[in-house]
Design goal:
By secondary structure, this protein is an alpha+beta fold. Helix content is 46%, strand content 15%. One of its GO terms (biological process) is glutamine biosynthetic process.
């Protein structure tokens, strides 16, 4: 069967194939179960654990979980036995320590509960089959540490590493094949020497240091608060594309790199702006509905689903959770969506830019801080101008951005996200914060020691900062609540009511490292503000800062952080020039960004000031991200070389041969030169141009391989400066051929088939 026939049969199958249907869970009387009744049924929650364990054992575990004591063998064995019984009652045959190596995804190794125990009888030795799970098996496992990225910390012959149960995350079961399931034990991953080799260990560390710093600041300015800890909250809006799986199977570039390396836009894509928030296609609705059901069972609070801007693009978003749980749940959601889409003969694409010319995908990380009393520290309340606690923490975030913008740029940098950042669809590489007119006025008024201005809202009413009502001048409609800020989708870091939305994070990325970096930078800024408050109070002979002391420090940090605030269009050239004038870093490429990770200013903050990383851990991460970038780009180049050489050029040759034969036949019967000759005259230079680009790309790829022994950043820079433009030029030449070569000869599913066949 030819490539053309495969494409057409895939189209027919997508249109006529049997659709998967599942039955929503129902009660014994036939009524549907409420989502709240399903939520978390496959999770070994604290409530479930409390029912399964003796009270003293459960109390001992809670003390350990709060950091007050180590987990003893008796408690560990009791928990292991209880969770094994609970999991096996749900069909579990295996368990796995589920962890987050520095690969951007998760990892797992399955071990069976089944054990063979020898016993001695008068007739000789026998073995007895038992289902067992000990406390030591629960607490740790040993994956191969030499087979995961370590940035030089581990060599091939130094293979030992450990996964250790993260007791702050609940265990859960996932349904497997043939009616079985697997018990998942969320874990951290460290080397034999105790170095963090994963994303989660450093996130947990950053949560702890931010908690201590933020609690100290709250208790300093509000001694009656008695805040014991502060935790970061996170909500991750996950964008993705869905394509027909058969079409996907016919695209080597999608399978190998996650994005299309060739392809022309169809006549209609997103330019009519009708896909965003439009009706969700029925096939996609089936996928997302099944995803939501699976997530309910796993305790993942999916709240929102909708079409995104580009055709074939969608989004799901959860309710906010504690940051570590939110990261676990985001990665688990991505995994579950992959499995569910497969069942519906669809493929989910998480690459930030799988299709050239239309919007890519992000993972908007909505971040805030809450106290042990449940108070959101970034809630401006009705009168933010008098809420000094809110203003101080707001300024701490702005100070973090101002001091460590380059570090945040590192956290969002990858070969895939580079295609999206600044592409008139996502924030640029310049890190700035958007607050909105009203909060900007609050800070300006405080700094200038003047009353707040009134705002004139066109067509509506005059309101003050703190006013929250809009009259839409339609009698049948109620007055509506108005947030303190508008939304700025061009900003990489926008305040959106009671949280910051870190919009620049890529859809394929784990949110763990970006959140870790943000936590660290805010921790340093909170410490700086706390020290300034103490110094201000001591200068006045006071044990604690007065209201005047708070205002003095607030005015100081308003002035210090002005440069990082920007309320306009982040896509504009004017902002690029303005940012340069303000001294904000404009880091244009990932390899350039990576160098900032080990610059003294940022390294001191991450290693000495906050202690989140050791120097070796940070250096290793630096090498890992550089190596990953170079490898990703080289894989793309070699994939494109193969596609062009083995599929596109042969298709063009075959089409050209047919045209030449037709032209010769016409000439033989004295018909004269027909349109075939005209097409040949267009086609031949395009083929020659693509052959030239292919040679240049091949040479650049070979040179990149030769540079692999260089310093990791030099290798990444070489790939960025040589391979990336060569890939783009080769693509342009191939895409020019696509519009000339007849459809029946083209070997790859086109954008129309990929984007519109769901």
């Amino acid at each position: 069967m030819s490539a053309y026939e495969l494409r057409k049969s895939a189209l027919v199958a997508a249109a006529t194939g049997q659709k998967r249907e599942i039955q929503y869970p129902r009660k014994a009387d036939g009524r549907a179960r409420y989502p709240s009744e399903i939520f978390g049924e496959n999770v070994f929650t604290l409530k479930t654990m409390a029912k399964a364990l003796p009270k003293p054992i459960f109390a001992s575990f809670l003390k350990q979980r709060r950091g007050r004591q180590n987990l003893d063998k008796t408690t560990a064995d009791s928990i292991a036995h209880a969770v094994r019984v609970w999991a096996m009652d749900r069909g579990a045959t295996h368990y796995t320590h589920w962890f987050q190596p520095q690969t951007g995804t998760t990892a797992e190794k399955h071990d069976a509960f089944l054990s063979l125990v020898p016993s001695f009888t008068p007739g000789g030795e026998e073995v007895t089959a038992l289902d067992q799970f000990s406390g030591s098996q629960l607490l740790q496992s040993e994956p191969d540490a030499s087979s995961f990225p370590s940035g030089g910390m581990r060599t091939t012959f130094e293979a030992r590493g450990y996964t250790i149960w993260d007791t702050s995350s609940s265990m859960f079961v996932q349904e497997g094949p043939n009616g079985t399931s697997i018990l998942y034990v969320p874990s951290v991953y460290i080397s034999y020497n105790g170095d963090a080799l994963d994303e989660k260990t450093v996130l947990l560390r950053s949560n702890e240091v931010l908690s201590r710093a933020a609690s100290e600041l709250v208790n300093l300015i509000e001694p009656e608060a008695h805040v014991s800890h502060v935790y970061t909250t996170l909500g991750t809006e996950q964008e993705f594309f869905l394509v027909d799986r058969t079409m996907y199977a016919l695209r080597p570039d999608l399978k190998i790199t996650g994005r299309t390396l060739v392809g022309q836009l169809p006549p209609r894509h997103q330019q009519l702006e009708d896909h965003y928030f439009g009706r969700i296609p029925s096939r996609v609705m089936r996928v997302i509905s099944e995803l939501e059901l699976e997530c309910l069972k796993l305790g993942i609070p999916i709240k929102t689903r909708h079409n995104e801007v580009a055709p074939g693009q969608f989004e799901v978003a959860p309710i906010f959770e504690e940051a570590s749980a939110a990261v676990d749940h985001n990665l688990l959601t991505m995994d579950v969506l992959h499995k569910v889409a497969h069942r519906h003969n669809l493929r989910v694409l998480y690459h930030e830019k799988p299709f050239k010319g239309i919007n890519g995908s992000g993972k908007h990380c909505n971040w805030s801080m809450s106290t042990s009393r449940g108070e959101n520290l970034l809630d401006p309340t009705v009168r933010p101008e008098t809420n000094h606690r809110f203003i101080l923490f707001l300024l701490a975030v702005l100070r973090a951005l101002q001091e460590h913008a380059a570090l945040l740029r590192v956290a969002i940098s990858s070969s895939s996200n580079e295609h999206r950042l600044g592409a008139q669809e996502a924030p640029p590489g310049i890190i700035s914060a958007f607050l909105g007119d009203q909060l900007t006025e609050v800070l300006d008024a405080i700094e200038q020691n003047r009353p707040l201005k009134n705002f004139s809202v066109p067509q509506f009413q005059s309101i003050k900062v703190g006013g929250t009502v809009l009259d839409v001048k339609v009698a049948a409609l109620p007055s509506i609540a108005r947030d303190l800020t508008d939304r700025n989708r061009t900003s990489p870091f926008a305040f959106t009511g009671n949280k910051f939305e870190f919009r620049a994070v890529g859809s394929k990325q784990s949110p763990s490292f970006p959140v870790t970096v943000l936590n660290c930078a805010v921790t340093a800024a909170v410490g700086e503000i706390t020290a300034a408050l103490r110094a201000q109070a001591e200068a006045g002979g006071r044990a604690r800062p007065s209201e005047e002391d708070k205002l003095a420090v607030i005015r100081q940090f308003i002035g210090l952080t002005k440069n990082v605030r920007f309320e306009g269009d982040n896509y504009s050239e004017e902002w690029t020039r303005e940012a340069e004038r303000r001294g904000l870093p404009n880091i244009r490429t990932a390899p350039e960004a990576f160098t900032h990770l080990i610059k003294p200013k940022h390294m001191d903050m991450l290693v000495k000031d906050t202690g989140i990383f050791t120097a070796s851990e940070l250096t290793s991460r630096y090498h890992i991200i550089n190596e990953r970038y170079a490898k990703d780009v080289l894989i793309e180049a070699e994939t494109l070389v193969t596609i062009v050489g083995q599929q596109i050029l042969p298709a063009a040759f075959e089409y050209r041969k047919g045209l030449a034969e037709a032209a010769a036949a016409l000439k033989a019967v004295d018909v004269g030169a027909g349109p075939e000759v005209d097409t040949l005259n267009v086609l031949t230079p395009l083929v020659a141009a693509l052959q030239g680009q292919l040679r240049a790309l091949t040479q650049a790829s070979e040179a990149a391989v030769a540079h692999a022994s260089d310093d990791s950043n030099s290798h990444a820079r070489f790939a960025c400066e040589n391979l990336v433009p060569a890939i783009a030029s080769t693509r342009a030449a191939a895409d020019a051929l696509e519009v000339v070569v007849a459809d029946k000869f083209w070997p790859l599913p086109k954008y129309t088939e990929l984007l519109l066949t769901i």
